[in-house]
Design brief:
The chain is of the alpha+beta class. The protein contains seven helices and 17 strands. The two termini are about 45 Å apart.
């Protein structure tokens, strides 16, 4: 399934339908959704009761507002918070529900609009509090994922019936400007103020010390300890380097080529931005302390990816530029 659909289904999207004859917002061929009925639970933490005729067959992706909410109109550039439940289209068996947990957030961005246009268009016509049903044929989902759709009659069979309730929305804050590399004068001032990390070689390995009671710098710091005399690195150079990395927050080491006893080889166009920007322009033989802010390191979701989070500090010895 597509990335956005996977998020929706994994979060247990709900299929819901409204009673009454009021025309509701929709997109796509919504005829397959007409049999869907929903009875909300006691509150937003309780599963609703959902019924529909089986097997539910759809020829294309479709979404429909089943119950119109009474909140604010949903707009672009918002984070939609929703709870959902999902059923197998063939027999209405429950696949999963997210009503007992916290709402899931889905941004109304271009990726969402491109991957699930029917759901996106329907959301843009409704309000907070609405219940929305959605189906997607298995063959269409497979084709979108790059798989070969089946030519069998089952190819038109809807794979999952999804129903969601929009709990709330919030504006997506404007993205913060990316951190910049600090100038030589700014680096000197921080160093004179004792606001930059230091190191000491112990048993042939750098031991890095984070300054006490100092905030992390607001940009990328390139503090040259010893300037080399070799070839100058470019943003696409292949290099060999020894390094040790620690977190600013607690000074804990998370990686070191010195511990492995061997320099690491890599391309400067295949590492975190702080390394690319920090080592570009340096000569082979240079020793440098890099202090790299989160957005130029592994980003705000670093922990979820198993990477070190926050501002990172590296001692790097650029041994060779190839």
């Amino acid at each position: 399934m597509r990335k956005v659909m996977a998020l929706v289904a994994t979060a247990s999207l709900l299929l819901v339908t409204a009673c009454g004859s009021t025309t509701m917002a929709s997109s796509g061929d919504t005829a397959p959704l007409t049999s869907i009925k929903v009875t909300p639970g006691a509150d937003d933490s309780s599963d609703p009761t959902v019924t529909f005729d089986t097997p539910l067959v759809a020829t294309g992706t479709a979404a429909k507002v089943l119950v119109e909410g009474k909140g604010e109109a949903i707009k672009e550039n918002q984070n939609i918070k929703f709870k959902s439940i999902a059923y197998k289209a063939t027999d209405a068996s429950l696949l999963g529900s997210g009503f007992a947990g916290e709402p899931v957030t889905l941004p109304t961005n271009e990726e969402f609009k491109t991957q699930l246009p029917a759901l996106y268009e329907t959301l843009m016509q409704t309000k907070v509090g609405s219940w929305i049903a959605m189906v997607e044929p298995a063959a269409e989902a497979a084709a979108t994922d790059g798989a070969s759709p089946s030519a069998s009659p089952e190819a038109a069979q809807a794979e999952t019936v999804v129903v969601l309730k929009v709990v709330s929305t919030e504006e997506i804050p404007p993205a913060a400007p990316p951190s910049k590399k600090l100038g030589a004068d700014e680096v000197k001032k921080l160093k004179d103020d004792g606001a930059l990390p230091t190191f000491e070689m112990k048993d042939g390995k750098p031991a890095i010390t984070i300054p006490k009671d100092k905030d992390a710098p607001a940009g990328l710091v390139v503090d040259i300890v010893k300037e080399g005399t070799g070839k100058v690195a470019t943003a696409t150079s292949k290099v060999s380097a020894n390094y040790t990395g620690v977190r600013w927050e607690d000074g804990k080491q998370f990686d070191s080529s010195y511990d492995r006893g061997k320099a690491s080889d890599f391309g400067l166009d295949g590492v975190i931005p702080g390394w690319t920007q920090g080592l570009t322009g340096l000569k082979a033989g240079t020793q440098v302390m890099l202090t790299i802010p989160t957005d130029l390191a592994y980003g705000p979701d670093a922990a979820a990816q198993g990477a070190p989070e926050g501002t990172l500090v590296f001692f790097v010895e650029l041994k060779e530029v190839k």
